[in-house]
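Ligand-bound model needed. adenosine-5'-diphosphate.
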Amino acid sequence: MRVLFATSEAYPLIKTGGLADVSGALPKAISHLKQFKGDIRILIPGYSAVLSKLKSPQTVANIVALGHACSLITGKMPDSGLTVIAIQNAHLYERPGGPYSDELGQDWVDNALRFGVLSRIASLLCSKNSPLLDWQPDLIQCNDWQTGLAPAYMKLIDKSTTKSILSIHNLAFQGCFDASWLKPLELPAAHFQINGFEYFKQISFLKAGIFYADKLSTVSPTYAQEIQTSKCGFGMEGLLKTRSSDLTGIVNGIDTQEWNPASDVHLIKHYSNNRITGKKAIKHALQQQLGLQMDANAPLLGVVSRLTYQKGLDLLPEMMPKLIKHGCQFAILGSGDKVLEAHFSALEERYPAQVSMNTGYHEHLSHNIMAGCDMFIMPSRFEPCGLNQLYGLAYGTPPIVSLTGGLADSVCDTNEMSLKNNTATGFVVKNVNSASLLVTINRAINYWKDKKTWRKIQSNGMQRDISWDSSAIDYLALYEKTRSNN
Ligand code: ADP
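Prediction:
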């Protein structure tokens, strides 16, 4: 089976969030499955970071897509050695700033074109006249809106026989652009309608993918249900309901080469469920590094997140002084909402020994927060899957989460019953509001003070198999099903 995995980011080449983690880990996990007899290749825009990190790059084809001359460069992933096909066009992709926005955080004004080209080339690679003459995929897995137009091009223009899956990692991002992009995107105007890629008078890349892909997947069973309701469907619930029988929810795993406390290259000490003492030393070092009071008896709460409404962290600043008064410390790493960043920074200024706020993107610090903290806070309003709560489980840092999407599917609340049957792994806030979150954090701290019980909660989480192995098997089953048209 030849699979093309089309994505706008993949770790370790380029990362802004969870999609990169999935794109880095899932193809690798599938390729390692004994039962996978095939070849999986990653298609990605040739951002400067991607081109500089690719191993053994080689130009293999030149191609014009949407009027833009591109080169296809194949190379190897630095970690897994999987084949990557990077699309090189300096004007489109080699810019300072991020994959989606400039250095000031403003979306690139030509994102429709940049990801239109990615989708167009994905479709061309799946056509009979593929520019890679020796390799035509049997199946393409598209990821999120950035590759959502590929199934539309495949069905409407290239009449491809390759089967397609659209994986939705976050329905909130829909890739909507003005109708004036129809022509530059070379989309047939006849399909700019409700039964096509039109969405409230705009072109929606994500809707195109949902409408035209053969199968759909999303990143947890609960989220697969939630997106078919008006609460979490972001206007797409009607269409998703009509495609219900083609929609599967598969929980993400974690890349255990990158995220394993027993071998994590970012940590000064390693630890495991059987020998957890190293975690204490990491907490001590983290407190020192962040300028927090070096107190083993202060509960240290961690946050690593995009700061957006979705993540529910706007509920935190109001209650932090109450928790700080009782000796809590906070290690926060996150950027996004400038007002929220400023709130956390103000708290850091007011309580320098108890609050550390870091903005920007820091892989090293994120691993150390995950390992050094006692618990991890993630009260998302919605969460397709979420990775940080999974890292929290693996690192013996029980997560405090809300009851939604992948959080509901991966964290089991601590109570008498779940402690008795060894399923307690964290703390669940039923309603996302300040009062409930405060009650839940206090409940977690009370358990934390009881060291024996806490070890049990940590141990339950650390023993859970959250590697990609079982999810990769589920994706392979989805690949087979899609290919055989069932
Ligand atoms: P989302 O994809 O919605 O942002 P996830 O929990 O699925 O949320 O994944 C977020 C990923 O990005 C995790 O690997 C997390 O550690 C990482 N991350 C988020 N913000 C930062 C940051 N400021 N620095 C380093 N890593 C971050």
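Residues 134 and 247 are 32 Å apart (CA to CA).
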